[in-house]
Amino acid sequence: MSRLVELEANGPRKLEADDLDEEKGDVAICRCGLAESFPFCDGSHRQTEDESPDERYVYDEDGTRSVVDRVVCTDESK
């Protein structure tokens, strides 16, 4: 499976004391790239559980998933 994820920030995110989950006592980091609270997990990965390893996916801002043949990127600065 592959997934197109667009990130709006660059550089590190410094963890603060309020990033700690008070109930669990830990910090969960997003690995799917879909969390609205990125880089922290918000459970968005649950929508990827049925992704096929042979498909490519794009998720819209509203969470709608589409299967695509390929992802093509262009460098618009040239």
Note down, in words, how this protein is organized.
- The protein has no helices and 3 strands.
- The radius of gyration is 15 Å and the shape is flat.
- It has a 3-stranded mixed sheet, with no helix packed on it.
- The chain is mostly beta strands and 78 residues long.
- Strand 2 and strand 3 form a beta hairpin.
- It has strands at 2-4, 56-59, 65-68.
- GO terms for molecular function: 2 iron, 2 sulfur cluster binding; metal ion binding.
- Keywords: 2Fe-2S, Iron, Iron-sulfur, Metal-binding.
- Residues 10-51 form the Iron-binding zinc finger CDGSH type domain.
- This is Iron sulfur domain-containing, CDGSH-type.
Topology overview:
Layout: E1 2-4, E2 56-59, E3 65-68
Parallel strand pairs: 1-2
Antiparallel strand pairs: 2-3
What labels would you give this structure?
78 residues; mainly beta; three-stranded mixed beta sheet; 3 strands; 14% strand; flat; iron-sulfur; metal ion binding
In short:
By secondary structure, the protein is an all-beta fold. The chain has strands at residues 2-4, 56-59, 65-68.
Number of helices: 0
Quick one: overall form? flat
- Domain unit count: 1
Arrangement of strands in the largest sheet: 1-2-3
Rg over CA atoms, rounded to whole Å, is 15 Å
Average predicted local confidence, pLDDT: 83
Q: Note the run of SSEs as H and E.
A: EEE
- Beta content comes to 5-15%
Low-confidence parts, pLDDT < 50 over ≥5 residues?
none
Q: In percent, how helical is the residue content?
A: under 10%
Q: What is the rounded distance between the termini?
A: 31 Å
Q: What structural class should be given to the helix and strand makeup?
A: mainly beta
